[in-house]
Design goal:
The chain is of the alpha/beta class. The protein is about 40% helix and about 15% strand. It contains eight helices and seven strands. The protein has a seven-stranded mixed beta sheet with strand order 3-2-1-4-6-5-7, with helices on both faces.
C-alpha cells in the first residue's frame, strides 16, 4: 500500500528541509503533501528549493492553523494510507513501516504512535495525560496518547470523518470521531524527542481540546 504523508508547516525554516530528507529516506512507497500555513519566515522558499517528484507543496494565503493544514493536505492526498507528520523533528519517520505493519497484516484499521510523555515539560506532559484520560472516560477507550501526531489510517477513513477543526483541536476531533464510529485504535510505541519551544499552549489549546472531546461525545459526528 502507498502512504501519503500529510505535513502542515508554519515557520519551520530551520527544520523542514531535514524533516523532508528523513521522510524521503524511509523505505516505503509514498507521496508527501506539504501545506505551508502562510509562514512569515523563509519556510516557503526552503520548500520550493527542494526538487523531488514525491513532494507536493501547497500554501495557505492566510494563516489558519494546524488542523486547516492537515485538511488541505488530506484533500490533495491520493494514496491508500495517510499519516500526519509534524515538521519540527520531534518524531522519527523511520517509525512509518512499524506503524503500517498492523494495517498491512490485517490486524488493525487505525494505528497511533505512542510517545513517552515523561520526556516532555511537566505542564505539557500533565496536560496530554489529562486529555488522554478524559478521552478514555468519555469514550470508554483505553488509548495511551490521544494527542500524538502519528495517526495512521486508510485515506478513505480519514476523509469520512468530515473534519472541521482549524487549530490543534484536530487531534481530539479525529480521535473522538474514530471512537464514536466504533474504530479500535491500535497503538505502537514510537521514538519521540520533544523540542524546547512549542507552538501549542497548554491553556490556549488545552481547553478547546477538552471542549472538542465533550462536543463530539454528546453531539453529532
Amino acid at each position: 500500500m502507498r502512504l501519503s504523508v500529510l505535513i502542515p508547516v508554519f515557520n519551520e525554516e530551520e527544520s523542514v528541509k531535514k524533516l523532508l530528507e528523513r521522510v524521503l529516506s524511509v523505505p516505503c512507497d509514498k507521496e508527501i503533501v506539504v501545506v505551508d500555513d502562510c509562514s512569515t519566515d523563509n519556510t516557503w522558499n526552503v520548500l520550493n528549493s527542494i526538487q523531488d517528484r514525491r513532494i507536493r507543496i501547497r500554501r495557505h494565503e492566510i494563516n489558519q492553523g494546524k488542523g486547516a493544514g492537515i485538511r488541505t493536505a488530506l484533500a490533495h492526498a491520493t494514496s491508500d494510507l495517510v499519516i500526519i507528520q509534524d515538521a519540527d523533528l520531534e518524531y522519527d519517520p523511520n517509525d512509518y513501516p512499524r506503524l503500517m505493519e498492523p494495517i498491512l497484516n490485517g490486524q488493525a484499521q487505525v494505528v497511533y504512535g505512542v510517545r513517552d510523555l515523561d520526556s516532555q515539560k511537566l505542564l505539557l506532559s500533565l496536560g496530554n495525560k489529562f486529555l488522554t484520560l478524559a478521552t478514555n472516560l468519555l469514550y470508554g477507550s483505553r488509548i495511551s496518547d490521544m494527542e500524538t501526531c502519528y495517526k495512521l489510517m486508510p485515506r478513505d477513513v480519514m476523509l469520512s470523518l468530515n473534519l472541521h477543526a482549524t487549530r490543534f483541536q484536530i487531534e481530539p476531533e479525529i480521535t473522538a470521531k474514530l471512537l464514536r464510529r466504533g474504530y479500535h485504535i491500535h497503538e505502537i510505541p514510537i521514538w519521540y524527542e520533544p523540542r524546547e519551544e512549542k507552538k501549542l499552549s497548554p491553556w490556549k489549546d488545552g481547553l478547546p481540546a477538552l471542549w472538542t472531546l465533550l462536543k463530539y461525545r454528546f453531539g453529532e459526528v
